[in-house]
Structures
1.
Amino acid sequence: MTLKDLRVGKSGRVISVGGEKALRRRLLEMGITPRTFITVKKAAPLGDPIELLLRGYILSLRLEDAEKIEVEEANE
Amino acid sequence: MIFALVGNQNSGKTTLFNQLTGSNQRVGNFPGVTVEQKVGSITGRADLSIVDLPGIYSLSPYSSEEIVTRDFLLKQKPDGIINIVDATNIERNLYLTLQLIELQIPMVLALNMMDEVQANNGSIDIIGLREILGIPIVPISATKKHGLTELVEQAVETAQNRKKPEHNDFCTGAVHRAIHAITHLIEDHAGRQGIPARFAASKLVEGDDPMLECLQLSAHEAESIEHAVKEMESELTTDREAALADMRYQFIEDACGKCVVKVKESREYRRSVKLDSILTHKFLAFPAFLGIMFGVFWLTFGVIGTPLSELTEWGIEELSGVIEGLFESFGLNDILQALIIDGIFAGVGAVISFIPIIITLFFFLSMLEDSGYMARVAYVMDKPLRKIGLSGRSFVPMLMGFGCTVPAVMATRTLASERDRKLTIFLTPFMSCSAKIPIYALITAAFFPRHQALVMISLYMIGILLGVLSGLLMKKNVYKGVPVPFVMELPNYRFPSIKTVLLLLWDKAKDFIQRACTIIFIATVAIWFLQSFDIRFNYVTDSAESMLAIIGQGLGVIFSPLGFSDWRVSTGLITGFLAKEAVISTLAVLTGASITELGDILHTLFSPLAAFSFLIFTLLYTPCVAAVAAVRREIGSLRGMLFIVIYQTAFAWLVAFLVYQIGSLLG
């Protein structure tokens, strides 16, 4: 499954990060690397972007970009 | 000695810079670096300069901020780096630190917000972390001014002794081998370019094209590098970019595991979640936003800004009266007196009197920005703005456009991508600025007294709608390029630093006054000249004989298809280029009517349909001189500025033409 499919309130662990060059690089730099634990905290009022908690901070991401991140559901 | 201040966005970098330098700041230009940087000298230490570089998350060559920082560090070679790290968000902040260490420039880590970590029962083993990273670490609190003296002392000592970071190897296994092999291979090339070999090698492993170009490697060498990378990739079963990011984060996780007692949920985090339960709530977010914005505009234009502006205006008038009196008592030449009083004082004064409004607007908006709310606005508004090819971050500048185009255009500086910035600047003038309100008010009262509010609102709507259409057109044709991905941090809400906000206001005010004294001064003198002389350069008392009138008559031909051909109207539009509210005062002066009589006089100049077409034209045509100057500055090229001026004016003409002609056909 991808990060896009992870429902609000659920957590997951990153398997792999896709996307084209600049996007992918930015995702990796912001700490979305393999095995990172991510919780989907919220969605924006119009359903997109979403709010993620990872490495102790909040990151917002568009659904179309979240779709590029492969995850498996996990509990801490 | 020169220090570079480098750190993530939201790490407190600007606060630290302001605390260290106070008001000893100026804009510096460095060769090889395209964007202006702020430079300041440390208070009480005039020999120590510090350069505030843009907030970045990495040294990749993707955003303009990253390129600026990288170029500065590589080409300018500062004596030292002060790397500010947010202790409450240490993992992600250290990602940049690891890359900075590879530059082998003497470096000190300023561990900011340590007080917050401690207050939440967290802790960081400074000595342990110092061992692992190999650079001095000074815990500080930039807002509370804790540890700043120690930080400066440590930075000076490190730079004076040219103490480079002790380690620069943060990787193991395959990545280590690849970097090692490549470092060896490119050492000479890197040395010739003055780039630290180790830094160059990790960038090459990451697939950094500008670095590859810069090193001027032979085909054979480039191939060997590719080979080393391929080997690493197959060993790790991952690609080059992920391999390096993963390796760095793994190192950081290990280091933090040893030295950091993490805070589970800090008080600041919980407070943010609570605030966001309203401010980004599914149904409450939009009303909350509208409420806040309404409050800001009401305070700016109603309660604070306008009275202050009126006070300034009064001050300028008084001053101008005193000077006029002085001139008369000295028997100064009439024309010179008219130039100074009617030209410069009236023109530049009208613009200066806007400063309080602009400053007040900026005050509230920068408070919202520094508190972290603007990031939420961008987050909430991202989806609708994506349709015209922008991101949520463009929303705030465009919103400011309803107040005044000048600060709105200046606010685009915070946007990450060049393309987004240009497109946002292009769209801002479509948001009808507040200086046009007097024109709308007068015309609608005279021609559409029963539907005044409706006509006003429809004008704003038409502006937004045509802006959206133009945006759609331009995103495919003129402002091409890939939009920067919207991957944005939502920082915890914080109380803004008053010092930072005040320094920012001082900066804006200075900027604006500077412009008023240069470009607006010249434009005012030019219009005054055209208005006061005829073509034989004789001074005229009746402006109907002036050069401006002749130009106005010429332009009347252009405007007659729009329904208004009177020279006084065209002249009004010309002076509207100086300041939009001048359209009304010019019409008053040229028709010899007082403001109260003007409504009736207007009926001799316009039919109701022509009046509406005139409103459309004023809504859309070129922004005023002050705004155009801001556009020139922010867009960075004369061509870009001229494009906007010409597009707006031509577009305004076309739309007004269609309105008038189709309206006439329909009767």
2.
Amino acid sequence: MEQAAHGRSLFSDALRRLRSNKAALASIGVLGFIVVAAVVGPWLSPHNYFTQDYGAIWIAPTLADAHWLGTDGLGRDLFVRALEGGRISLMIGFVATLVSLIIGVAYGATAGYAGGRVDGVMMRIVDILYAMPFLFFVILLMVFFGRNILLIFVAIGAINWLDMARIVRGQTLALKQQPFIEAARMSGAPAVSIIARHIVPNLLGVVAVYITLTIPQVILFESFLSFLGLGVAEPATSWGALIKDGADEMGRAPWLLIVPAVFLAATLFCFNFIGDGLRDALDPKDR
Amino acid sequence: MLSYALRRLLGAIPTLLILLTLAFVMMRAAPGGPFDADRELPPQVRANLEAKYHLDEPLYQQYGRYIWDVAHFDFGPSFQYRDTSVNDLIAQGFPVSLKLGAASLAFALIFGIPLGMLAALRQNKPADYGAMTVAMLGISIPNFVLAPLMILLFAVYNDWLPAGGLGSWQNYVMPVLALGTAMMAYVARLARGSTIEVMRSNYVRTARAKGLSAARVVWVHALPAALTPIVSFLGPAAAGIITGSVVIETIFGIPGLGQFFVQGALNRDYTLVMGVVLFYGILIVLFNLAVDLLYGWLDPRVSY
């Protein structure tokens, strides 16, 4: 609604507000650093994430022999493993969010645009799915069908689209009343192209906020599964799996717990701050 | 209001039925069965076992039998814990989980609401930024990270608190903190947002204009309205506690429902897993209903 009235200036306003939000800016910086480190970091170390070295087990963080963050009970280098785990955690975060984004936006925009009985039925289905304790289904899926990374993407994405669908539907209902949509309809544009060309682009602001808040949820969820021993399978790893290993050995080698915990918490912290900053920037009534 | 409550309860039945069906289908579609031991059972023993638990019947018959039993609040015998019914296990585990969950929720509300209101009343001042940074940290540190870190600090390095088990109140300190901190942080953020909004509303301005003390305006006039979003957050919060308790109970070795669920899933204890899932489903439905009724009581503009 406001988007349409203010036209382009809303985004420049939002950008200005975001720039003055130091917490959000710092978060973008830290997050960028973590992402770059996860991508290129493993190449900087002479070690890899799966080779076991029984001559170098339980080494505390040291500069010697390039075990910068120490090694685990199998002599695997923690620096590389933490970044490798970061690759997996971040990838799951992005891909599963993308899955939920596609389903949620398509579903919500269709329900909101169709309105009436179609909308009623579609949202009733969402309500029913909402009441399901999905986490338990995901746990069952993992236990019964094996720890498959593809399955994790699909399962997490399939759960997370519900919120997205609700938010998008609400926005679409409001957008639908706008004159430019009516004009498109009058000129004979089919519903599909109205949704794709006129509704969805106008949802981008809300969706952007929501994406930054969904990614940390997904990462958290994957870590939770990995912590229960149901996530990615050895020797591949993720932050949740590393935290689990670290928690098992924390008396002897606390760095195995602390390093992945700091990575995970810092990433979630940054995403949450960026999401908050974006929301405040696009809808500044509370600040 | 009574008819509203009844309608809601009836409306929950199809939801629970779908839940039950999904759980049933998944359990049966999964490879492996409850009697797959390391050592292969003699065929006769296996057949007898399967006959005893009706696993030899056609699937639709098993399904019908199960629905019928559940409708009579009989969740069947556990496969793993021989001679124990799922009802017994739930009756055994639920009080433990309930105590933990209720304590965590109380912790979240008792600390979260004042923290959020304090931040709102000092909006954009250091106290506000401090409180909100603490809240953001609370949200960003997952309970399964917080719990081992606390054990490391309070049980391994310093011998202040027991690392697991149940006995005295000290056993509850770390699990409650681990389970309640994230929720406390959410509550604080919600309380801040709603208090800021309420303090700008006309009726609060009126209350101030007629000369009431600041304390009276905040506690008597603003508080009930500021609480409404927190009340509606209690539904998701309860679900979050249930989920969180799965991992917290595993970490601290607390014999509650969450641990039964994980063990049941790993051991393919069909009836136990389905019983726990269904029990959680019923719990969430009832809790959401209670929240909605409470909401109507707090906000007179809501009608059923």
3.
Amino acid sequence: MPIYPLKETRQSPQSQTKAFSWLKDNLFSSLSNAALTFIALYLIYLILPPILDWMIFDANFDLTADNDSCGREGACWAFIDSNLKMFIYGFYPQEELWRVNTMFGIIIGLVVFGSLIKKSQYRAHYIIGAFLIYPIVAFVLLHGGLGLEVVETDKWGGLTLTVVVAAIGIVASFPLGILFALGRQSKMRVVRFISVVYIEFVRGVPLITILFMASVVLPLFFSAGMDFDKLLRALIGITLFQTAYIAEVIRGGLQAIPKGQYEAADAAGLSFMKKTVLVILPQALKVSIPNIVGSFIALFKDTTLVLIIGLFDMLAIVGAATSNSSWLGRDTEGYVFVAMVIWVILYSMSLYSKKLETRFSTEHK
Amino acid sequence: MFTKLKSLLYNNEVRAVLFQLLAVAVIAYFAYQAFDNLMLNIEQRGIRSGFGFLNDEAGFAVNDNFFLEYSPASTNLQAFYVGIVNTLMVAITGIFLASIIGLIIGIARLSNNYLIRKIATIYIEIFRNIPILLQILFWYSIALNALPSARNSINFFDTIFLNSRGLYLPKPVTGFELYIVLASFFIGVIGYVFIKKRSNKKHDETGIKTNTIPHFLGLVLLLPIVAYFVFGAQLEYPALKGFNFKGGIDLSIEFFALAFSLSVYTATYIAEAIRSGVESVDKGQKEAAAALGLKDSWAMRLVILPQALRVAIPPIINQYLNLTKNSSLAAAVGYTELVTIFSGTVLNVIGQAIEIITLTMLVYLTISLVISMILNIFNKKMQIKGN
């Protein structure tokens, strides 16, 4: 039997440094790739400098400057600084701002506490309790009553309003969405018909027409004595709209449940309610969580539309602040600032939804 | 007797019928209440009802008007039609631009080149996460600030003008000459389709490929241009009169701001659809194509793309629908499309909210239905055959 002696192992080539080989692989692997690299560099050269100039190098960071002394070369960040309160709180009275802060403080506290007791057996009670009690506390803080001075909703605005509208929209549309999703899957023809018509109708028209409907038409359907608050009308419109989308998301989850689960629940002799609440929905909701977050992101973007029916969300504040004669013509600064704030919120939400998607993914990789 | 009744009550089918009757009764009750209140409110506020207002004189001017005859003396119905046409025009322009940008960004996102890939990713992450209304207002304010006034318009060879009010293009005068040019264009297209079909057939039968690009250039481009010069179709040029340009085709800056923002925003979704389409194709397909000896560009065109598009096109069509619905945000910048004209101006003048908003919604519903019908036909055609 011949014996083959082992050859000495060779060192890996050291001639190329890591950075050099990375550049070669990713930017200059071929002639066309190199050409693309230069095109990309040229694009960056075209786009980036003007933006940086406007935002930083030509901008005026003197926060005491006024509109005239700021100059028109670059951004005037004093505009944002002097209107910051309006961007966050709208026209909420100065001396009551602590109430808005407390409201946001409590919710952050609740979330942090909730994540601390992840393993506790009372976690479900805690979450349900918080969901039931917090909205009441938040409403009293924001609106007033119980000894607090009442702040009418037309004073609400800015980021506060955006968050409030989005949060109420999602919380209110969630149970309704579940109902319509179940209705669309139901064997009862009338129920299914009503659900399908509602969902497809709402998804077929733009949100703005529904908001118009809610703000102009809806009051006509109620007796004259009922005075509808403008914010309430917007909330009704947004909830009706979001319900249809949430229903479709949850329907997707319901369809992902294997038929065997329904049959097993029937075989165990569970009633329809028990089957739905204890067996089907927990699984369906879990599957649809990433899409629910996605739909929440879409809702958050859509809340900006309330400006068209005359509410002062963060975007509308730009118009309000620049129509003030002392800050005429600073809309670009306002839009850029609002865009940055909303972008940070939406981008973190989309990262979160991606994380959820991988966590709940049962696909084989 | 009693137990029999009780067992009937526990029968699933009986329960279903009862439940549905209950649902109908509840809805009917609320509908009746709402209708009752409605009648009362209408009477109290002295609002007219019915669609008679459609024949009233509109009394307002619109900025953008593409093909239709319209003046303030026209009826509300004509204003309605102008609104629909303007909605469709901005939607079609937006869809066209969004498809091009989306395709470029989608391909860039899959590129081997690190920089190109990163630029595409940054583009998507930035524009997807900013509300479309904010983008519309932003680009509109940028355009208003950056572009010159009518007197100092940017002038392209005295035929095309751009200023802060809009873009002004020469307009072909309708007449015999124009019809000749249009006819030659259609003849060219039909001729090219015929030649292309024949060359495809030849390729299928013999494997010989013919280059049809010269035919395309000759028939589709050259023929109408030759016809134009031979017959000399008349063009109407825009000219500065007083404070603004008159004559020619006039596209308002609102139209551009809207179409541009809609396409920039929607392109991010189209790019993502294309990417996920390409990624959905099994890796084995690419390896099999390589094993057959196809070079990369062929493998992409003949193997990957046909399979990727089957996955990518339904979400893209959905995005087209979303773009059309989002075009209703024109109300924020005052581009005179359906919502601005009808749910805005006409509603303010007439006040018949129910009729006006219902009509507006019906238009969008129709568009949605047509698009989902197209989608269904596509899905049926694209189903994997066999198995």
